[in-house]
Amino acid sequence: MTTPRHTYGRGRLAAAFGGLAAATLAVAIAVPAAAAGSTLQAAASESGRYFGTAIAASRLGDGTYTSIANREFNMITAENEMKMDATEPSRGQFSYSSGDRIVNWARQNGKQVRGHALAWHSQQPGWMQNLSGTDLRNAMLNHVTQVASYYKGKIYAWDVVNEAFADGSSGGRRDSNLQRTGNDWIEAAFRAARAADPNAKLCYNDYNTDNWSHAKTQGVYTMVRDFKSRGVPIDCVGFQAHFNSGNPVPSNYHTTLQNFADLGVDVQITELDIEGSGSSQAQQYQGVVQACLAVARCTGITVWGVRDSDSWRASGTPLLFDGSGNKKAAYTSVLNQLNAGGTTNPNPNPTTPVPTPTTTTPPPTGGGSCTATYSEGQKWGDRFNGTVTIRANGNISGWTSTVTVRSPQKIIATWSGSPSWDSSGNVMTMRPSGSGALSSGQTTSFGFTVQHNGTWTWPSVTCAAS
Ligand code: G3I
Question: Could you tell me which residue ranges the CBM2 domain spans (predicted)?
Answer without folding.
Answer: 363-466
